[in-house]
Backbone:
């Protein structure tokens, strides 16, 4: 499984990771417990960042009025090797991330897991404003394939579209996604990226055939697939890495369970190791 690879590499190369702590008492308790577990398992050296440290917290804790800003500053100032959003506000975190990197759009690669078969796969896009064209889809194919190879996993890539080939007549928007999927497969092959297949709209076939990198037709569809799997379908998220940044930034859900934060810490440690090589 992909998470097993991440945990193994993280244990061998523990990094200094900052994780955000929200104000809700449940968030605080959960995040601290996961941080303790990560340290115990030697995944990383942890610093917690939030507005106020609990009295009984024995871990390193940075108290600040603006944790969403401070956690990013720690990374930019090279005081940590990577950051995990944890239970901080997503909107505030993203605003500060955009200001810091002077970007309007970020691309994330999520690590998901199905409920029935526990099949893990990288997935993009998860942002509604991502994957607007074939170039962006090819970017996700290249980045995801590279990450899998670094993990010593043979990529098996599924590119999705809005319908089957015969569905092109059902609308220009549908036809566009089908044409783009075909383009991405062809261009990926030209770049030497093998084992890439256009699964059209049949995401169930991609899962059944154990695709470990799945590219949705566009951002809205990707976001809905993510939400359906994780929030309605009993699937799991193990965090999402922001791509093309000089240090690992791993996104998590504010209400995410402990296993998501644990995997995200391992994710951050592993990406940090890869970036230093």
Residues:
């Amino acid at each position: 499984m992909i998470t097993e690879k991440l945990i193994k590499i993280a244990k061998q190369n523990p990094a200094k990771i900052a994780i955000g702590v929200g104000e809700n008492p449940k968030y605080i308790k959960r995040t601290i417990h996961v941080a303790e577990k990560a340290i115990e398992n030697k995944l990383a050296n942890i610093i917690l960042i939030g507005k106020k440290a609990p009295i009984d917290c024995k871990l390193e804790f940075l108290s600040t009025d603006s944790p969403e800003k401070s956690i990013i500053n720690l990374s930019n100032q090279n005081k940590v090797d990577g950051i995990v959003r944890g239970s901080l506000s997503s909107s505030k975190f993203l605003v500060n991330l955009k200001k810091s990197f002077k970007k309007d759009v970020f691309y994330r690669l999520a690590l998901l897991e199905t409920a029935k078969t526990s099949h893990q796969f990288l997935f993009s896009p998860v942002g509604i404003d991502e994957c607007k064209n074939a170039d962006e889809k090819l970017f996700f194919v290249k980045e995801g394939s590279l990450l899998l190879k670094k993990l010593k996993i043979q990529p098996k890539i599924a590119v999705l579209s809005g319908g089957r080939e015969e569905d092109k007549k059902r609308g220009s928007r549908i036809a566009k996604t089908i044409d783009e999927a075909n383009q991405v497969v062809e261009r990926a092959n030209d770049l030497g990226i093998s084992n890439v297949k256009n699964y059209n709209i049949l995401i169930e076939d991609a899962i059944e055939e154990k695709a470990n990198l799945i590219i949705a037709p566009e951002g809205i569809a990707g976001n809905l697939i993510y939400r359906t799997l994780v929030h309605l379908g009993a699937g799991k998220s193990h965090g999402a890495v922001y791509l093309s940044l000089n240090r690992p930034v791993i996104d998590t859900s504010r209400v995410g369970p402990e296993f998501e934060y644990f995997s995200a810490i391992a994710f951050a440690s592993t990406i940090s190791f890869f970036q230093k090589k």
